[in-house]
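Support reply, case 0932

Customer input (verbatim):
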Amino acid sequence: SSVSAGNQPLYVVDGVPVISDDISQFGYGGQDVTAVTGLSPSDIASVDVLKDAAAIAIYGSRGANGVVMITTKRGSFGRPQITFSTYIGTQDVIKQLELLNGTEYVTFMNEAALNDDSTDVNAFGELGVADSVNTDWQGAVLRSAPIRNYELTMSGGTERFRYFISGNYFDQIGTVIGSQYDRANARFNLDFNVTDRLFLQTSLALSRESNFRIENDNTIRGVLSNAIADQPNIPIRRSDGSFTGISDGLAYVNGVAVGTLNHGEGLTYRALGNLRAEYELVPGFRLNGRVGADILNLREDQYRSPLIDGGYEQSVGGIAQSAYNLGTRYIAEGYGTFQQVFGERHDVTLTAGASAERNALEWNYIRGVGLGDEYFQYVNNASTIEDYGGSLTKNNLISFFSRGTYILNNRYIVSGSLRADGSSRFGPNNKYGVFPAVGLAWRISEEPFLRSFLGAGHLISDFKLRGSYGLTGNQEIGNYTWQDVWGSVSYAGRPGLTPSQLANPGLSWESTRQTDIGFDLALFGGRVSLVADYYDKVTNDLLLGRPLPLSSGFSSVIDNVGQVRNNGIEFLLQTVIVRPNMPRGFRWETSFNISHNKNEVTALYDDQPFNDGRRDINRVEVGQPLGAFHTLRFLGVDPATGDAMYEDVNGDGEINADDRQIVGSPHPDFTGGFTNTVAWHGLDLSVFVLFTSGNEVFNATRTFADDGGASDDNKLRSVLARWQHPGDVTDVPRASLDGSSGADLISSRFIEDGSFLRLKTITIGYTLPERYLRRLGGRSARIYVSGQNLLLFTNYSGLDPEVNYSGSGSNVGLGTEFYTVPQPRTLLIGLSLGL
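Our regenerated output:
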């Protein structure tokens, strides 16, 4: 719903909105260090996704992109319960690209030179000599990798004091050499009824993450990307055992060397906690107070070896750089809740309160070169400090909120909310945003006329119509975007200042108005349930760069311009096909969901379109979906010449940027999933299938691997079907070193159908009968095997249609796969024991 402000949902863990941004300073393609990964999934009791206008409006400035409410597990009354869970497994990559071998590569590139009458014939190796080498670069950087997880929990308590304590360790070796991730968690959740009126609740989570990332995606130094790009007729190592490189004729640095010699570790320490107090002042009226903190420390170290032949690090004797990032969020809130039932007909709930939030991000960075020896890999070993920097930024948010719900006769429901947020990210003219919402619901199934007509609910168990309308905001921009910003600069060795950003005191909130209409229907005692929703979201006052005359000294200023609209439908169908008639009897349940969303840019500044993304292929244009693919349209290959043919849109007889047009959309027409669960006598089977339909993917890998020979990169085996002789009918242009065939032009030739159906998860388990466990002093025991990403059905020719090379770093650069590491196939065996 936003072009340049945040599009991530708000994550709320046990009532505290948490830091979810990527605060890393080092770029590794689309491999974000998303701050929500520190939470152990096994600690989660429930996840609720708030999407409709009435539900998300209570979060005001935070709710424009939805809210993910995460509630962690808590203790309950009873004797201590101890649970140990573990799983181990392996991961691998399902698919590798089919590339040319050494002989085929030399033949293809020499043919490209001959087609251009080039003097570079045999520059790629003479047949029978260099082509005898056939290096499998992909196989050298991809591997089967182990994964494991261990968890121990203890919970229990009395009527007044309850506790939940957990510890977790997760370790995952990456499927690409040089990558690894591990996480250790500890959680302490306590509930204490101090008196009959005073209740205290606290949550504390501590985590440590170690993330070894390697370069990939948008880089010429990537491990997997260079393994795809480098020539197959050059070996990985020389005869003396050292790695080959650019001096040996490689087009790019040796990807195996990068994954072996270089390393970069991000070490994250996090403390997330809150304390809540609730006091019942009088029956039905409670006062609540909460304080919370999210403290996130990320330290990053990166080493680039001088042994990388042809890299910048070789010329400077090695590179070491270190970064320190500290993000903090402190929250305090207080609110009162009144709930009372008047008679048997009127149920009233009222809530009002205020909250304050203080955020800060501190970072420091230093980079050194000249390390002298392979064993010295840190900045303090460098002979020269090449670069350094640091900063501290802050932003604050203060909020006032109220909400009320009235239920009449358990059938007619009216709710409303009003929230006002003041953000330091906006100027004094528009610091506050006001976000109202209203919701209506009618539980028709409780109407006497319907119950008497249908026979007390035997057919319709529950039927509720819903509707809501609300306004939410978005403030996810830079902390000082509305202000003049100056930076330090050196003039002939003397310190000075230079303007870097123009002020806009009138900058205001992005606002999204949303309308929702839907119904909940349950039939046959709940054996069939259907949830259907229609929504319409219009985001106004987009936070975008407005063009300025260059005479102003600036090319643009952030302003409120433009509009984006999303509307669509969602369906969820759940069935209980077979309900067990005894405790361990046969049970069969299914869940199917499908959704359709239409995205459209409806206004821009002077309706001026602009492009972004890889090769500026993604378009922001009025009347088109956000990030639509904007390229030349490929018409095929001329059988007479072997040249690629493109549509001449303006009819000027030339093919250039003026002939670009919208050729596809990264947004699917439909997205959905199907879950099937069967259980019988302790055996259980669960299968989850995920699908999308109607979206396109920009296979940017092909812009080098299928460019006809314009680059020295290795080529896809599909080029074997290339045009070679007059009269050949094919869609693969002739080989050409100088690009005269037009095969390397960015066009719809590289836009592919991204629809897919994936067998996402399948799990088979067995739970031991309790009567056997009691004899052994146990409470529960389950063993299972599970697989993830087992099968993929798609027409997409790349590694994985369900990835994006820019991660979450771009709202516009959507649907692009550029040497992106695919999701691994994972096989697990697990065990859970309860005492």
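We compared this against your earlier run and they match. Two observations from our side: The longest strand covers residues 384-408. The radius of gyration is 30 Å. Please reopen the case if you see a mismatch on your end.
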